[in-house]
TrEMBL record, chain A:
Listed transmembrane segments: 70-91, 103-126, 132-151, 163-180, 215-234
Pfam families membership: Rnf-Nqr
GO cellular component, one term: plasma membrane
Transmembrane keyword on record: yes
Protein name as catalogued: Ion-translocating oxidoreductase complex subunit E
Species: Colwellia ponticola
Lineage: Bacteria, Pseudomonadati, Pseudomonadota, Gammaproteobacteria, Alteromonadales
UniProtKB/TrEMBL annotation, chain B:
Subunit structure: The complex is composed of six subunits: RnfA, RnfB, RnfC, RnfD, RnfE and RnfG.
Membrane topology recorded in Swiss-Prot or TrEMBL: Multi-pass membrane protein
Subcellular localization: Cell inner membrane
An individual GO BP term: electron transport chain
Record field: transmembrane: 20-38, 44-62, 83-109, 121-139, 146-168, 217-234, 241-261, 267-286, 298-316
Naturally occurring in which organism (per UniProt): Colwellia ponticola
FMN phosphoryl threonine: residues bearing it: 187
Signal peptide: none
UniProt-listed NCBIfam families: PRK00816.1, rnfD
Name used for this protein in its record: Ion-translocating oxidoreductase complex subunit D
Cofactor list: FMN
Origin organism lineage: Bacteria, Pseudomonadati, Pseudomonadota, Gammaproteobacteria, Alteromonadales
Keywords: Cell inner membrane, Cell membrane, Electron transport, Flavoprotein, FMN, Membrane, Phosphoprotein, Translocase, Transmembrane, Transmembrane helix, Transport
Role summary: Part of a membrane-bound complex that couples electron transfer with translocation of ions across the membrane.
Amino acid sequence: MSNEIAPQQSHDVENADEQALLTQASAASAARKAEYKELAIQGLWKNNPGLVQLLGLCPLLAVTSTVTNALGLGLATLLVLICSNITVSAIRRWVPKEIRIPIFVLIIAAFVTCVQLIMNAFTYGIYQSLGIFLPLIVTNCAIIGRAEAYASKNPVGKSAFDGLMMGLGFTIILLLLGVIREVLGQGTIFDGANLLFGDWASVLRIEVMQLDSQFLLAILPPGAFIAMGILIALKNAIDNHIKAKKVVHTEQVIERVRVNFDS
Amino acid sequence: MAFWIASSPHNHNHTKTPNLMRLVMYATLPGVLAQWYFFGWGNLIHIGLAMTTALLCEYTVLSLRKKPITHELLDGSGLLTALLLGICLPALAPWWISVIGTMFAIVIAKQLYGGLGHNPFNPAMVGYVMLLVSFPLQMTQWQPPLSLVTVDLNFINTLTTIFTGFTIDGYSVEQVRTTIDGITMATPLDTLKTNISLGLTVLESISNPVFGNNFSLGWEWVNAGFLLGGLFLISKKAIAWQTPVSFLLSLFICSLIGFSLSPDSSASTMFHWFSGATMLGAFFILTDPVSGATSNRGRFIVGLLAGLLVYLIRTTGGYPDGVAFAVLLCNMSAPLIDQYTRPRTYGHLKGDK
């Protein structure tokens, strides 16, 4: 009997093991999904490098006078951020803690050089209009911040995704600022898009309104600061709105008879 | 019974904000009338436009901020801002200039910082500087005094010029500003600056008709009007005398030094006093109780600094007149000046904390 039962039992055990493994796997995949979701939310909204961390303000404010420039810099930053996150994460076990910052900077500088050379070769117009802000991506705190805070402690896949989401969050803010400033300043969107995408892209140019004279403030740096402040205020207002909606009044009001000496 | 112990000041005169604002508005009347007499209806139309915009903007922002609307809307501070901005604008500037300027002044420079009493900068000057930086072409098209203009600039003509850019007979702003000889007229300050950069002496450039017989045609009377209104305000104790006196003194000393060093390339002291926005700035802008310094010594220092800055901007800067920039720079430094000019507390020794 026992002999007959034993394999059955073992089979059951195996089954149970398999099930446990399966549940474990599904739990792990669910956890991983949740983690990726969290990474996306953090990068795009809760911890947006442009709106919340306020990192990389220098290029953010300097080059967003047109949508094309903003998109060019956003894409360059996105690419550098993903590549540097992957590299930093891949070599994280062999990097001595004491000299990690110079190593991160070297890695980032290498990728920025690549991006700069690529843009110089293929999108020369945008390369010229971005000017010094393209090489300055090396010192963009958003990139070294992600390398230090996330990529140096997490596996490659997650780091790459984190870089993608943070870069997207940064690019979206750049684009928004670019749209606001270009519409207010020149009344157009995607003016000079052919510099970035090639000749076909000149059809992208939209004339929103005809302005007799440019609204210089929107194009000059103060306009960037004001628009940025309004965007941050808008984000805070949305957050407050969501928070106010979520609050459920669970406190029960307990009425007590107060006994005063006056009464 | 306990004594209620309050901090100083103990002597109140119970003047409410609307009363003070109304008094200041009345005090601008002589200057505004002089402006109307010499330059026509333009500034009055701009003041009206700016006031309407100010009320609308303030109403919108106050209702968004859920503030008591009637109380804050009618305290007169927004209207005063609009009035000052309307006075500063070139008379024939297009209508959207005053609308955009007032919107910026009220919404961004005043309400976004927390409303009356919380704005670090004078809202009217912020609006003016924003316009000057953003629309340099429209903001420098100054209209010459009526006596020099060949086109009849009556009310209707001015109105159509402001709203459409042309008079009824189809003259553009550029044509209105052009003399019979085909030369575009500018303000005296502007003309002087251009002439000196061209190598002419002051005496040679003063022969230009925009200078009139005394210092600067029209402008001198506008400035005299604002001086009169300012003296009225000082006599009513609505503003402190320290700021305007030190400002005018500082401008006087600076221009005197400049004039005695090289009389050929620097204008006289009285020209600096009675042209541009000197008197308006001295009595109505710098004395803003919110954005200026609060201690008496501090006010004195702010006035001195503003006078020096105005002189430097007028003589060596890129703009012909620098009152607005000087005021903003002084507003910026007012908290620091206040920090170091705190008056001695009664009963404490000098240097005692």
